[in-house]
Amino acid sequence: MKLVEMKCSRCGAVLKLRKDGSEAKCDFCGAIYKIDDEDHNAEQRGYEAEKGRIRAREEAKAEAIQERIDKINEAREAQLEEQRKIEKIFSWFIAWLICFPLPVTLLIWPTKLKKSIKIPLIIIAWIAYIVLLYIFFDNI
């Protein structure tokens, strides 16, 4: 409670506060003034302040949770990107396998060439295939 010097509204003399603090009396003219130091809005202001504090705490929690969710989503997206890259490499591997060395092997084998020529040709085709794969996948 703020202490203020009070003056009588009738005569202007300084008022003296009673010991219990409920009234003030003018010693000069005898006027009595009731003192009401109760703040009627204190409870409402306290309630609003507490509500604001709780809201701020909940917003901070929600923000921290959202940050965690964002980090998890970023990690998940990175995993999916890595998985897509692996799937792309596998698809290219299968496509190269089907398009180059197997058909070459199947074309060379039934020919009338001697086995001493067929086998080195097939080996050369497969080595070329492996070198091409290495060059291609090294650039990815």
3D architecture notes:
The chain is mostly helical and 140 residues long. The chain contains 3 helices and 3 strands. It has a 3-stranded antiparallel β-sheet, with no helix packed on it. Helix 2 (101-108) packs antiparallel against helix 3. The longest helix is centred in the middle third of the chain and has 58 residues, at 42-99. The two termini are 76 Å apart. The mean pLDDT is 83.
Quick recap:
This protein is mainly alpha-helical.
Query: From N to C, what is the helix and strand string?
Result: EEEHHH
Sheet with the most strands, sense and barrel status = 3 strands, antiparallel
**What global shape is seen?**
rod-shaped
Helix content bin: 55-70%
Percent in strands = 5-15%
Please state the average pLDDT score. 83
By DSSP (H or I, 4+ residues per run), the number of helices equals: 3
- Whole-Å distance between the termini? 76 Å
Alpha-beta content class = mainly alpha
Write the topology of this structure:
Elements: E1 15-17, E2 23-26, E3 32-34, H1 42-99, H2 101-108, H3 115-138
Antiparallel strand pairs: 1-2, 2-3
Characteristics:
3-stranded antiparallel beta sheet; 3 helices; single chain; mainly alpha
